[in-house]
Amino acid sequence: MIDQSARDTLKGWLEDYIRGFVMPDPDRQRNIDLKNEHTAGVCEAILDVGASLGLNESDLRLAEITAMFHDVGRFEQYRQYGTFVDRKSVNHAMLGVRILGKLDVLKNLDRTSVRTILTAIANHNRFRISDAMTGRNRLFSKLLRDADKIDIYRVMMQYYQEKSAGVTNDTVEMDLPPEPGMSADMCRDILAGRIAKTGDMRNQNDFRLLQLGWVYDLNFQRSREIILEKKYVDRIISGLPHTDTVRKIREKIIRYLHQP
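^ thats the sequence. predicted structure below, dont judge the formating
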């Protein structure tokens, strides 16, 4: 059982930890702030989805803790490497697990809860979770993966709005170039109902395609409802070329999201 006091103590630790990553460069500080805001957004999303599943208060706190710490490795990653692109730096999920272990952050929680938290964090950025994972570890890993995607959509919508006003940020767009065209492999995967691969990305349009393909990895009905309520699909597609392929992608994804 995880009580409110334990949750509050951990939240206080995280706030103190993030305050240690003040950047003298305003643009770099903006990216630290962005990750801090994202963490709060993932916490909000995981509580929403968790409540829809009827989780009890203790399990909701457990879910929230996974969300609190899911990107704890991002801050050290950015300080050391100046990027959030794992393939150019380090696996931020595993870095986060190492940080939590090294600093003994979860020492006051029971072993089962610690194992669930670390498993969820370690799996939140993988292409997919192993079929061998079962029980509570699988449930909370799925919850975290959904909540992370839900808030990344929010972050990207906010960024695309800023971009339309002329404010750009290469870090948010994975350091990808603003070239024309789209990856044929990514389009093919999405139309086949598969998650697109990050390795197939070549430009910023492909990053939008990647985001669209994430819907196939949403695990809960409430997660799909949020994507539809916020109209994220159309807002992402609005920045893509107006082609027959994009129209088919939209139809495929909207139809998928409406499935029970």
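The CA atoms of residues 179 and 203 lie 6 Å apart.
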